[in-house]
# Entry
Amino acid sequence: MQKVWAVLFGVVLALCFGLFVAAYFIPGWWLPHLANEGNWGKDVDNLFYFILWATTFFFVLTEVILVYAMFKFAGEPGRKASYTHGNHKLEIAWTIVPAAILLVIAFSQVQAWEKIKYQSRAPLPDQIIEVSARQFEWRMRYPTVKTRDDLVSNWKGDPTKANKLADRWGYDYLADFDDLHIGNEVHTWKGAQTRIYLKTRDVLHSFFLPNMRLKQDAVPGKTIPVWFQPTEANGEFKDGKWVYDKDEGGKEKVWELACAELCGWGHYKMQGHLYVHKDKASYEAWLQHALEKQNVRTREKK
Amino acid sequence: MSDSHTQDVGAHHGHTELGFIRKYIFSEDHKIIGIQFLFSGLIFLFLGGALALGVRIQLAWPNKDIPVLSNLFPHSWGHKMAPEFYTMLFSMHATVMIFFVIIPWLTGAFGNFLIPLMIGARDMAFPKLNMLSYWFMWPAFIILLASFFVDGGAAGAGWTSYPLLASINLAAPNSGMGQVLWLTSLLFVGISSMMGSVNYITTIINLRATGMTLNRMPLSVWAMFITAILQAMALPVLTVALILQLLDKTINTTFFLPPGGAPFGNWHTGPGGGQPLLWQHLFWFYSHPAVYIMILPAMGMVSDIIATFCRKPLFGYKPMVYSMVGIAGLGFIVWGHHMFQSGMDPRLGTGFMLATIMIALPSAVKTFNWLGTTWGANIQYTTAMLNALAFVSMFVIGGLSGIFMAATPVDVYFHDTYFIVAHIHYVLFMSSIFGIFAAIYFWFPKMFGRLMSERLGKIHFVLTFVFANCTFFPMHIIGIGGHPRRYADPTLYKFLEPLQGLNVFMTVCAILLGLTQLIFVVNFFLSLVWGKKADRNPWHSNSLEWSAPSPPPHGNFETEPVVYRGPYEYGHPDHNEDYLPQFDPSTVGRGTPVHAH
# Structure
């Protein structure tokens, strides 16, 4: 009768395990679609799966031993437990083996982390955007094609200079006059090294692109460069309109931008969208279109 | 506890009989103070639980009409939960559970009750300070409860209270008076904890009974000792942080306001000269060790309970102690893992990552030693034991899920999603609270002289075990799906749509989990009055508290106890009984009594 407790533990733990396995197969219950597979997005996912396998192994190992012991050694009147205070060799074994595995996990991630966050590793950008967060929206600033070429594209031969100019545009509002200002829309194109100059005007926010596995807090008083390279497009700008691509299931590839750091009552409302154009031409068509709309409105006001 | 002091102990130790107020209200008796912490924690557990249910209800049915409940919300909110009310709910839920339930229960209730009894002392080293440490909680209680009724409501900037959201009064409707009271309330909690920890450290070092060497202390005492040291070293930093934010909010200092300031609507803060990240460093320098403050005592108590009901010596006593020391030591250099995405220099992240990954090691060693204890045991499935085993099995999940967030690149994605919410609840609910339940069932007879009902206890355990897993385990899944935490309405997002069904499921289970706790309350209070009378040692356990009467009188022991051996001599082959208490003078397994001091 005592053994029923082992069964209870076994069933509950097995159900938890089962839910994890099932989640992998249920659409929408697992990692969102990865859109920078060709870049470090793949590193993040690979590391996730590596840790998932390692932890699953230890989960199954320890829980099976526990449930088995609960079953096998359930109390019987009159029996005496085995008398031991421990085992030196076992202690050494179960210290050294997990230590080795943990060290492997620790060192296997250093490179990916450097690639994602170390500013010295920031790749030379093809596309630069300034994102300024405030309660409760994202304000984007895009350079015109000419500004971008002047600052970055024409200096590809001199990366130090290109970086410096891009940084001045991003940090110091250089070339403020003809930039495009728009809310809650991140536009870039497939294959473009995209650099975001992330700021906030008020409280903390966090720039979260689930499909790019990218997250960075925006900190008052700081400008933080972050970068990603989409290796897949989710639509194009056609006939003055954005048209989404469809995924295998026939659903539109809507990729979202979310705020991941509590920023007040409207935290949940800081929704934006990520538009990865199929090529540079589509992006520039959109930019032209958006600039025209912006500038017409400015003129009308006068 | 009405009958807890019927024994006439005055004669033994020269105590004069005290009046009701000195005995039960402004008591200097560590046992009464412990029980006071236990009762106030129980009240706040239900407040914190109710706040959590509010959170869950909003997440399952955001902005929907809910029968009865919707009508409770004012007309001005459109009979729906206002989002700033929602931010208040989760902020205060965490605050209440961490600072008013788990820490006071583990250190205040059990630290107080167990330390003198387990080391054979008559009371704490500083009984008056001990009394003050409880009564300094009361300003905290009152201020915290009052903050629900001030203009704008209680604090809503998260239990982490990051500036500028928390530090600028206009940044949120509830960042005004509510936040000021939050800071003040926590200052009192801090003072209370500090008094407690100083007392515990002194008591454990100085007041051990004859023969109670450090290596004969039960793991509960070791855990409380290490926890007290952690608290004493980390708390000053939190206190400083709280005071700095309080100054920012009240006399417009700018410790956390960056140069240039920030605009809020038509109002501008004016220039600052501070750093918002400074708060995060100070806060987590305390609050990461606080995570261990909230788990180490439970680990210690669970170790004692598991050994008792395995009827077998604890496997690897010294590795267990060393691993707790290791957790505490490493615990001071891992705080930066809360800040991987905060804008802190990513090179620091690499260092914090290494320390964080390695802290999994002592936790693993502890788990293996618990498993080693059950191997070859003769397990008695009491309610206390079931809760202790639940602690072990759930701590494995909570420990392993932490590794995902410790890995910096994976944390880029998982940071501030529901995965971390799952992780913290597997550590703090599924581990600490199961540990606390185990401890309550186990030491209840010593506290009150009566046994809790095993039948009700087992019903409570099974339902809690099932519903808690149903409530918290799916959080891992929605976390993997990218569900951000602290969202008042996740349904706005396309990528969260498939996860909404799980949100509803978790809410239903959370409500059932909450209702289940009523069984515990019924059991607790009925057993207090009608429970079966307990003798001195109802579980046939080994440590010193079981040599005292149940409940122990003021002064604890009739004669000063002498300790002859370690606390885990179960199933000794040369002894007829399957337990051999520390205070048993028989020659079996006996070392010479050594003087502790």
In short: Strands of chain B lie at 263-264, 267-268. The radius of gyration of chain B is 24 Å. Chain B touches chain A through 116 residues (CB under 8 Å). The first strand of chain B starts at residue 263 and ends at 264.
